[in-house]
Amino acid sequence: MKIIDKEFEPFIGQDQITVKVKELANLINQDYAGRKPVFLVILNGAFMFAADLMKEIELSSEISFIKLASYEAMASTGQVQELIGLNQALSGQDVIIVEDIIDTGETMAYLLKKLDTLNPKSVEVVTLLLKPEVLQKDIDLRYIGFEIPAKFVVGYGLDYDGFGRNLKDIHQLKEDH
Ligand code: IMP
Ligand code: MG
To answer: Whole-prediction pTM value?
Structure first.
């Protein structure tokens, strides 16, 4: 499949994603039983994952959004921009950050540091995807969906220069050798 100027091939199918999302939600439902966490979703990429995850969450919980960007086209810029800020008081709350993918870890490290100043009761991370080979930050990731190779992916919320977010499956960049 072509997106803008690059060829992508199917990588993680819709059915596999659905199973994994349920697994993650079940773990969270168990771990947070009796608590009322605030899910903090990082826009734009995590919107689809968050929507599916939240439908499986059986806890009394709130959901809030923050918009961060560190990526331009296919590479991390190493700088995190806050495009829409936090409007929710997180002091004393159990916060669960919902992210689509962790690559260098720059974005997550930035957010964790920022949250630290807001005195939440606890902070954990749920990420659908992790690229362990390129992770550069020492961050604690409680819930991880899939560990994947350091190749660019699109679909299920993830984009290539704004496109591909609507795809139901996750596709991987096809390397031409
Ligand atoms: P990090 O700060 O390098 O960990 O990058 C995290 C952010 O970059 C994610 O929230 C995504 O929005 C974006 N990103 C990282 N890898 C990919 C990818 O393979 N495809 C699409 N977006 C990605
Ligand atoms: Mg993201």
So the answer is: 0.94
